[in-house]
Q: What sequence folds into this?
């Protein structure tokens, strides 16, 4: 725990703690005379303290009021204690709600966590000094350390601090004993929350401050409104779809993938995380010879699924080779590489793509409409990473609407469907599971896999010799 | 945008009225097509069974709050970053630590695994996003090959690689998002529109792969076109900071988690919020959300140390998971959906399945 300094990297706006509003509302309800938590007078040492509740009563009230089970009520209760809305009378440094007869009280609203002000070190120093005056050696070790630190850092103010402490101490002595004990408990609870003992955490720790004050409104200039007007006009003009259609699509997606979701249907042979056996991953590796039935089924869900799975894409390429129409996918892949490639490689890639796919008489000439071709070729004069977007979308749609469906009906796909395996579910005994847990396999480092793939790609590129254009064109004409 | 000259009939009041009128018109247009609620469409869907989700691994090794984590595409490795500046790469399956880097700053709030599995990116209070290539040699000092890519004027809140190792998308406390070329560190596109700190972002999984969504302290979730830098859709229904945004697996919707203790689902094609996931007993903010593979389940990590599991279609809470001893700060489902990982301020990460 450190003394807060002003070195906050210019980030001084506290994030809004929206939860505080809800917590406060809940605490107010809990204190309701008629329907709130049962409270009574309790003897603490020799003093009688009013409005004391037991942990189990608080829990029961929360569980009943919010209609939750005890475990969840425990979470809510403990959070209220951690934030300082309720404080324990015994074992005061442990900010949890104990589900037994332990005694608790509601904190006075003055000491509630608020967004607007931070508890100051000056106040903490006064508090520690006051306790020191009341009884020497009353401070815990960590408190004594903090006291010494504060004394050093605020040496110039120390007279003021000691004076304040003495004043508060004197004022305290004037009060009735019960009141004094209550006030002391409240103040002590407040500082436990805001200056937590070592090796405990404070619920008020919210992370780093925000940069821009979310409570400050943006200046409402003319430009501000102009921007909103333009944006809203565009939003109004945007085409949107009926809810029934788009929500229907969402439901359809869930239904389609239901059996493939490991949280909804068991993955075969078993979920590696549950059984410590990684066969499932072995069977689904990037370039297995024989994929699983589930994987092959997933390729049929959408063209995007087929392409996203490297094994699926490889199978699709087998089909395209038989049809002598591999150039569409090759173009799409090249365009992807350009889009996601390094800025420095743009012009070189653009040139290669033009020579291979777009130039008249190119070896892997792609068949796109004249207008798109014209736009693309012109754009390639000053290539940027999105210059192929129009052509790429056109080719993608072509494959998606035509080639993909022919693939699904093709012997290539039917063949892989037949060959695909369906592993039997594992049925490990407890002893076997224990063994599995001791022998978890380390798996291959992704760097090695990446290097292997790069080697394969290089080999494939070298092996793809000059294509015989005449034979290619002849095959195309024959098919027509 | 440079200030235009004032037109003769423009006053602050007239523009304000015009913008309010347009906003009302937008809501009317959206409402015209709103012919059914999500839970109505979901009535025909069968109910979910009981779930048994347990902690399968606990990863201990960070000395301070875990702030962020990401999965590797190999479905078993993860990278995590913490408040004390440490970034650790784990094989979560065996729980072995494979690499560790100490950043020169504290509060490393963002980390991401590269698609190739050969590098990680991270950043935080240093206002930068740096890429560390990983090595097969365990003794190699990774900090030596560190590459500074992104430079913001304030803290880095989130980062993500795009479809390749060559580009990184970042969001920052300075209110902007940006797309960077990793090799040269060049800024490719910047995205302005949030009025306060941007806290999170997520890339669309769709086949066109050209958009992303960001959430900020201005309570807005914005959808951006990566090509043009324009904000194409904006949603402002949350009542507090948006801590996390995540696309629905089909790319047609996204979920958000906020300090207002709710998670919400936004339908991009219908252009509206379609579900609110909340309960009276959930008072504390949601810090991170993610979908299961089919999109049926939404997992949310909360500031009251719990994880709530929601039925996305029916809007009900399916399960609540206990275990962490401090805030859950980050939560991601693994690439093949077999498990999800949660990171917490209690210094640990847990794998649940």
A:
């Amino acid at each position: 725990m450190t003394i807060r300094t002003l070195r906050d990297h210019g980030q001084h706006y506290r994030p809004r703690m929206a939860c505080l509003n809800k917590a406060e509302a809940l605490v107010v309800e809990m204190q309701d005379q008629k329907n709130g938590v049962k409270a009574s007078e309790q003897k603490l040492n020799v003093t009688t303290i009013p409005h004391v509740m037991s942990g189990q009563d608080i829990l029961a009230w929360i569980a009943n009021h919010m209609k939750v089970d005890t475990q969840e009520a425990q979470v809510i209760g403990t959070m209220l204690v951690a934030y300082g809305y309720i404080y324990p009378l015994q074992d005061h440094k442990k900010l949890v709600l104990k589900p037994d007869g332990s005694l608790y009280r509601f904190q006075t609203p003055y000491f509630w966590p608020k967004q607007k002000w931070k508890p100051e070190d000056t106040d903490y120093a006064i508090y520690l000094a006051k306790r020191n005056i009341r009884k020497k050696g009353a401070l815990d070790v960590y408190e004594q350390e903090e006291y010494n630190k504060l004394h050093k850092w605020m040496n110039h103010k120390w007279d003021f601090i000691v004076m304040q402490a003495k004043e508060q101490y004197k004022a305290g002595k004037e009060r009735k004993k019960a009141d004094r004990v209550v006030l002391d408990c409240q103040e002590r609870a407040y500082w436990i929350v805001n200056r937590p003992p070592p090796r405990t955490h404070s619920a008020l720790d919210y992370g780093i401050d925000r940069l821009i004050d979310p409570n400050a409104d943006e200046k409402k200039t003319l430009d501000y409104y102009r921007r909103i007007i333009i944006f809203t006009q565009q939003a109004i003009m945007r085409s949107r779809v009926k809810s029934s259609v788009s929500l229907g699509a969402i439901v359809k997606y869930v239904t389609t993938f239901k059996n493939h979701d490991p949280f909804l249907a068991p993955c075969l042979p078993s979920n590696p995380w549950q059984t410590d056996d990684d066969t499932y991953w072995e069977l689904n590796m990037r370039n297995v010879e024989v994929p699983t039935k589930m994987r092959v089924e997933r390729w049929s869900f959408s063209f995007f699924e087929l392409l996203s799975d490297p094994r699926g894409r490889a199978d699709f390429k087998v089909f395209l080779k038989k049809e002598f129409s591999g150039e569409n996918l090759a173009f799409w892949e090249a365009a992807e590489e350009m889009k996601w490639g390094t800025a420095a490689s743009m012009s070189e890639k653009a040139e290669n793509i033009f020579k291979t796919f777009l130039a008249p008489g190119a070896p892997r000439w792609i068949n796109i409409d004249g207008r798109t071709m014209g736009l693309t070729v012109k754009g390639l004069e000053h290539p940027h990473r999105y210059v192929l977007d129009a052509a790429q979308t056109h080719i993608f749609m072509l494959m998606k609407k035509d080639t993909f469906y022919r693939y699904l009906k093709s012997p290539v796909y039917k063949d892989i469907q037949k060959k695909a395996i369906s592993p039997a579910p594992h049925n490990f005994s407890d002893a076997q599971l224990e063994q599995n847990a001791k022998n978890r396999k380390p798996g291959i480092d992704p760097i090695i896999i990446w290097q292997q793939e790069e080697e394969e790609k290089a080999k494939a590129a070298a092996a793809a010799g000059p294509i015989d254009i005449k034979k290619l064109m002849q095959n195309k004409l024959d098919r027509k | 945008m440079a200030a235009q000259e004032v037109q003769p009939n423009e006053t602050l009041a007239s523009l304000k009225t015009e913008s309010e009128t347009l906003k009302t018109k937008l809501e009317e247009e959206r409402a015209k097509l709103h012919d059914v609620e999500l839970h109505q469409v979901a009535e025909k869907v069968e109910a979910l069974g009981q779930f048994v989700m347990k902690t399968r691994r606990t990863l201990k090794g960070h000395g301070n709050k875990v702030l962020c984590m990401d999965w590797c595409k190999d479905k078993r490795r993860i990278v995590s970053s913490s408040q004390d500046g440490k970034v650790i790469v784990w094989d979560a399956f065996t729980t072995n630590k494979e690499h560790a880097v100490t950043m020169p700053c504290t509060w490393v709030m963002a980390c991401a695994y590269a698609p190739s599995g050969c590098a990680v990116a991270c950043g935080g209070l240093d206002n930068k996003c740096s890429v560390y290539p990983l090595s097969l040699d365990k003794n190699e000092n990774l900090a030596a090959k560190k590459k500074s890519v992104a430079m913001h004027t304030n803290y880095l809140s989130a980062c993500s690689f795009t479809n390749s190792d060559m580009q990184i998308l970042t969001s920052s406390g300075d209110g902007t998002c940006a797309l960077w070329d990793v090799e040269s560190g060049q800024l490719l596109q910047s995205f302005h529109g949030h009025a306060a700190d941007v806290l999170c972002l997520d890339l669309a999984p769709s086949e066109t792969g050209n958009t992303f969504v960001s959430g900020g302290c201005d309570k807005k979730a914005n959808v951006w076109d990566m090509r043009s830098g324009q904000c194409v859709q904006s949603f402002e229904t949350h009542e507090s900071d948006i801590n996390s945004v995540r696309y629905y697996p089909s790319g047609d919707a996204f979920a958000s988690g906020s300090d207002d203790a709710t998670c919400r689902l936004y339908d991009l094609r219908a252009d509206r919020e379609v579900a609110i996931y909340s309960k009276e007993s959930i008072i504390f903010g949601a810090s991170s959300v993610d979908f299961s593979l089919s999109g049926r389940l939404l997992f949310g990590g909360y500031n009251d140390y719990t994880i709530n599991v929601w039925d996305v279609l029916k809007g009900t809470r399916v399960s609540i998971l206990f275990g962490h001893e401090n805030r859950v700060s980050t939560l991601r489902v693994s690439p093949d959906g077999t498990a999800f990982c949660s990171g917490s301020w209690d210094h640990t990460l847990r794998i649940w399945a």
In short: The helical segments of chain B are 12-32, 38-41.
